[in-house]
Amino acid sequence: MQKTWWKEAVIYQIYPRSFMDSNADGIGDIKGITSRLDYLKYLGIDVIWLSPVYESPNDDNGYDISNYQAIMKEFGTMEDFDEMLAAAHERGIRIVMDLVVNHTSDEHAWFIESRKSKDNDYRNYYIWRDGKDAQSPPNNWGSCFGGSAWQYDDTTDMYYLHLFSKKQPDLNWDNQKVRQEVFDMMTWWCEKGIDGFRMDVISMISKTKEMPDGKINGIYGDFGPYCVHGPNVHKYLKEMNEKVLSKYDIMTVGETSGVTTELAKQYAGENAGELNMVFQFEHVEGDGKYGKWTDQKQQLTTLKEIMSRWQTELYGQAWNSLFWDNHDQPRAVSRFGDDSPKYRERSAKMLATCLHMMQGTPYIYQGEELGMTNYPFESPEDFRDIESIHAYEEWCRSGRLTHEEFWPCMLYKSRDNARTPVQWDDTEHAGFTAGTPWIAVNPNYKEINAKSQTADPDSVFHYYKKLIALRKQHPVIVYGRYELLLKDSEQLFVYTRTLSEDEKLLVVCNFTDQETSFSLPDDFKQAACLISNMDYSCQAASITVRPYEAFVLLK
Ligand code: TEU
Ligand code: CA
């Protein structure tokens, strides 16, 4: 297995809008990030993945880009960006940019041109089709954010494809000019000195030529078989690698929803010549009841099967990215742990242990290191997220489900749970802004905030800090082989990591609020405790594992 810096790194995701506001307009910004770099340095992370900071009309909070080489006005200027990059590098922190090139904003100059006429130079930068007939779109595909995936444009009496919102038209990657524009833009950022790319829905860039109706899923047809892992996706990524990525010492991670382990090896195999790693979503996506929506926890045995399969099947061939949450997912502790006052801290630490001891590069989503929780939304008007707003319309206002049926699902899974501001201290608005925040601050900020946790050696923050530090001291955490024990337990997640006969880890995590017993494997009876979220003491062969307890033994 090749050793590389990005396998040994811990990555911290910043969603800039909600991270830190420097100028009291209620919106997080780049200067705000710069002001908190010392906090991140203290935590010990190596890399920041920065969600989009480019010019954008913010239909989807920056995932709709109108200019790839300019900074969003609300976030600051290119000088602010350069200053942040330099300040991060001074502290030994790398910065990975979000690359959103499956689509642009409809306010991007390319699209403004493209829609003008059928013979415009930019027409083929996007995907235009005639309607089936005067009344209907080219096919029945639905977009990820609700409604048809086609938008009618009366300037030329044709439709354009948008797999996300209608303000996010899909680029036509089959057009060589589009690819070259994207590669040139990426090169421009690399020359600036950034350290890599997280590639938004990169598995969707290649569409089939034929675009038949999809299988009905709810109201609309599924575009999946025609647009996800499409015919030329690997060809285009190899071209990107050859023309841009291979020229720099950067890291890349592709967002590839629906990916299998076999496909992951194609995207991110050690010698595939495409990406360094991919995000897979099986462990956070399989639980849906109504599309992605549910209010039910995934069974532990299912979760273990999924995560263990990824650990085993990629071993030595491709590299895992490890995450419980991000800006599209609810808060980890509310979803996989227990966010009640009794168990919030303990279960947040347990989840961190379980993830950070696996093989792969761990990603921490802002606030996760504080054990931040889901938000107690009270009404549909509280949501800011385009997906949540559309989902409520499509499932409830349409009459398909009652409010009572759907509401618990929104509380459990809305993306806005992750998007409330980072809780810095116990002053008004959690110290995030001196103005009015663009989205409400979680009312629990007086108990849960960075200021109190950095001062408390037993906090969730300090636990993350310790996990990150351990990774730098013990190669077995990075490179050891994974093996699952007790596969049928609905309470315990137990696994070992092995680097050699004398360098082995045992990881034991209780995912429930019930205690249970566990027999230590023989070779761990004398082992030292590396980290634990309670006061671990080995009471001989059979031990009691308390609610949400976690510990790691090193042989
Ligand atoms: O998300 C891609 C994606 O597949 C989402 O639809 C995801 O499944 C959903 O948010 C889960 O609820 C990426 C970005 O991460 C997301 O923030 C963007 O909205 C989306 O692409 C469009 O750019
Ligand atoms: Ca601001």
SSE blueprint and pairings:
Blueprint: H1 5-8, E1 11-14, H2 30-35, H3 37-43, E2 47-50, E3 54-55, E4 67-71, H4 78-90, E5 94-99, H5 109-114, E6 128-129, E7 150-153, E8 158-161, H6 176-192, E9 196-199, E10 216-217, E11 220-221, H7 224-227, H8 233-243, E12 251-255, H9 261-268, E13 277-279, H10 282-285, H11 300-314, E14 319-322, H12 332-335, H13 344-356, E15 361-365, H14 386-397, H15 403-413, H16 416-419, H17 450-454, H18 460-473, H19 475-479, E16 481-485, E17 492-500, E18 503-510, E19 516-519, E20 528-532, E21 542-545, E22 550-554
Parallel strand pairs: 1-2, 1-15, 2-5, 5-9, 9-12, 12-13, 13-14, 14-15
Antiparallel strand pairs: 3-4, 6-8, 7-8, 10-11, 16-17, 17-18, 18-22, 19-21, 20-22
Features:
single chain; 555 residues; alpha/beta; eight-stranded parallel β-barrel; five-stranded antiparallel sheet; globular; binds 1-O-alpha-D-glucopyranosyl-D-fructose
Roughly how many Å is the radius of gyration? 23 Å
> Bound small molecules, which ones?
1-O-alpha-D-glucopyranosyl-D-fructose, calcium ion
Order of strands across the biggest sheet? Answer: 1-2-5-9-12-13-14-15
Percentage of residues assigned to helices: 25-40%
The chain-level structural class is alpha/beta
Range of strand content: 15-25%
Structure annotation, total helices: 19
Which assembly state applies to the chains in this document?
Answer: single chain
Q: What is the global morphology? A: globular
Roughly how many Å apart are the termini? 22 Å
Q: Which stretches are low in confidence, meaning pLDDT under 50 for 5 or more residues running?
A: none
User: Kindly state the mean pLDDT as a whole number?
Assistant: 97
Secondary structure: number of strands: 22
Could you give a short account of the major beta sheet? 8 strands, parallel, barrel
